[in-house]
Amino acid sequence: MSLIRLAPPPRSLGDLAAPYIAFAAKAFSREATYRMEVFTNVGSLLVRLYLMKAVWTALYAQNTAPAGVPLHAVLTYTTVALLMSLVLEIDGTRQIRDKIREGTIATDLMKPISLPLYFFSDGVGMTLLHALLILPTLALALFLVHIDVPSPAVLAAFALSFLLGYLVNFLLNFLMNCVAFWTLETFAIQLMVRWASDLLGGQIVPLIFFPGLLQKFVLALPFAAIYSTPLLIYLGNIPPSRYVAALALQTAWCVVFGLLSWLVWRAAANRVVVQGG
Q1: Do 180 and 97 touch, CB atoms closer than 8 A?
Q2: Residue 127 lies in a domain
Q3: Region of residue 65 (left: phi > 0; alpha: psi -120 to 50; beta: else)
Q4: Does residue 67 lie in a domain region?
Q5: Does residue 8 fall inside a structural domain?
Q6: Does residue 24 fall inside a structural domain?
Q7: What's the CA gap between 21 and 140, in Å, rounded?
Q8: pLDDT by residue for the chain (277 residues), tens digit each?
Q9: Which of 99, 158, 165, 215 is deepest in the core (most CB within 10 A)?
Q10: Count of domains in the chain?
Q11: How far apart (Å, rounded) are the C-alpha atoms in residues 38 and 46?
């Protein structure tokens, strides 16, 4: 009697996603154990909000509203930007550098999982905990400032833009940490890129305050896709008629950085430098 070997049934999308959902859940639990660090981040955010309010109030007391943006709109911008930073400052890809320096990246590459997706799911898990902190942090922030709340349609566009900005931010961090495959250290490049991102991304100062051609230039940079585009949608500076163009530009940067990440990861995985012993 001949034996017929049956091919294993194709795995469903749920089966493929199950490990990464588990990774995200584990990262959420791990992050929740560091409660004091989490509370410190919230306290630091509130202090930054208080200082930013004092600075903007003093500046507006001396000058007229730049770009026609009133003080209450700038304070709304600042508050929402700081709440966004609770999520966007989480970097799940920093493990790449640590694993390369420890040498564990070699064995990780042999595991039957996608390491980039592992880093993404780990970052999502940590992000979810910090996302849960936005509501209580917002409640505390309202004791310091009054913020404007747009219509549900604008909030929906803001949420979609924020998601695209999150993807751009993840891919940018991924590329920076992949540099460690060649240099073993990424602190300097991360410091420079993070400084540029904070300044040119609109986290600190709205990009519409920049003059003329400089404003057009910084709004076209990928950094603007992280903070500025969602925030300008929230404030109404990007009207509904321009939503498609704004979201398309963010999507384009996601595609560009996604392709770059794929190319860099393929090149990096072919040359693993192990440091330590």
Answers
A1: yes
A2: yes
A3: beta
A4: yes
A5: no
A6: no
A7: 31
A8: 444 544 455 566 666 778 788 888 888 887 777 767 667 777 888 888 888 888 888 888 887 667 678 888 899 999 999 889 888 888 777 788 878 877 777 787 777 888 888 888 888 888 888 787 777 777 778 788 888 888 999 999 999 999 999 999 999 999 888 888 887 777 777 778 888 888 888 888 888 888 888 888 999 889 999 999 999 999 999 999 999 999 999 999 999 999 999 999 888 877 664 444 4
A9: 165
A10: 1
A11: 13
| Count of all residues that appear for the chain in the document | 277
Structure tokens at 156: 């929906």
Q: Which domain holds residue 220?
A: 31-269
Reference 238, options 208, 275, 204; nearest CA is 208
Give how far the C-alpha of residue 243 lies from the chain's centroid of Cα atoms, to the nearest Å. Answer: 20
204 HSE (CA, 13 A, CB side): 10
**Residue corresponding to tokens 């791990």:** 30
